Amino acid sequence: MENVLGLVALACGLIVGLGAIGASIGIALMGGKFLEASARQPELMNDLQTKMFVLAGLIDAAFLIGVAIALLFAFANPFTL
């Protein structure tokens, strides 16, 4: 039980790190698909851009929820006695 704080710190780092990697890959793939779609049909660029920004916000929101959970475990740790 003495290594609980170290394991919580490791878990928080993994939550934030893997969440950042996932959000970065998701936004990169979405941006690439947006460029492909706007090159094929330039007249739809405004509609696609709006949808892309909404999806980018949702992807970032999922990452920030993970950061909030990691901060909860880091500062208000329910596992310590």
Describe this structure in words.
By secondary structure, the protein is an all-alpha fold. The protein has a domain at 22-75: F1F0 ATP synthase subunit C (F1FO ATP Synthase), CATH 1.20.20. It contains two helices and no strands. Helix 1 packs antiparallel against helix 2. It is elongated, with a radius of gyration of 18 Å. It starts with a helix and ends in a 6-residue tail after the last helix.
Task: Give the topology.
Elements: H1 4-40, H2 45-75
Quick tags:
81 residues; F1FO ATP Synthase; 84% helix
Q: What general outline do the C-alpha atoms trace?
A: elongated
Count of DSSP H/I helices: 2
Instruction: Give me the CATH architecture of the domain at 22-75, please.
Output: Up-down Bundle
Mean pLDDT: 90
Which range does the strand content fall in? under 5%
Percent of residues in helices comes to: over 70%
CATH superfamily (homologous) name of the domain at 22-75: F1F0 ATP synthase subunit C
Ends: how far apart?
9 Å
CATH class of the domain at 22-75: Mainly Alpha
* Strands, count: 0
Radius of gyration: 18 Å
